[in-house]
Amino acid sequence: MQYLRSAGSAVVLAGVLGLASCATGPDIRVDKDPSADMASYKTFGFFDALATDRAQYSTIITSRLKQATRTQLEAKGYRYEESNPDLKVNFYVKVQEKQEIQSTPAAPVGFYGYRAGYYGAWAGYPQDIQTYNYREGTLSIDLVDAKKDQLAWQGVANGRISDEMRKNPGPAIDAVVAQIFSNFPNPPAK
User: In this predicted model, what pLDDT tens digit does every residue of 43-83 receive, in sequence order?
Assistant: First the structure.
């Protein structure tokens, strides 16, 4: 497991935010505190020390996440306020190196090719085994009730990261944040 700790790793982790470009798309999950009335909140701001800034300075990823989140929340009717917001926003990013192993019966060639399509091979028949290495990323966006200091809403995106996503993280960040907020419950009246 690899966490965001420096500017160099921030660039590597940028790919996690490109989850929206996956062929099947990221797995999006949202959860809300049942007692939280999202329509009652009017303003939002960001935590002073965001989880994506563990290196003690603001990263490029954090700046992009802030802008994409601000765009989504303002479109839903919330107003940005630095000093005393109703909701405080935080981000969490994680990337894991994963491996997938697939096995399929070997192609019927040579001596055994004569029985192709007639019946299966015996248990000891050779298998073709492929190993795929990939990165899996998770992005979590937390909205915290500033007065209660309690999580009110959370959106999480999880999926595979491609090299292409890491090369152009800006639009990928915008897309995945938009997907996370696509089913946001009861925003305030505009």
Answer: 999 998 777 767 677 788 889 999 999 999 999 999 999 99
* CATH no. of 2-101+134-181: 3.30.160.670
Structure tokens at 75: 């479109």
In this predicted model, what pLDDT tens digit does every residue of 82-106 receive, in sequence order? 999 999 999 998 878 878 888 776 6
Distance CA 39, CA 165 (A): 34
Q: How far apart are CA 157 and CA 137, in angstroms?
A: 8
Residue 85: enclosing H or E segment and its boundaries? none
CB 9 within 8 A of CB 52: no
**Distance between CA 45 and CA 81 in Å, rounded?**
5
Q: Where are the domains of the chain?
A: 2-101+134-181
Predicted TM-score of the model (pTM)? 0.72
CB atoms < 10 A from the CB of 115, how many? Answer: 11
Q: Vertex 86, ends 85 and 90: CA angle to 5°?
A: 75
- Distance between CA atoms of 61 and 8, rounded to whole angstroms? 11
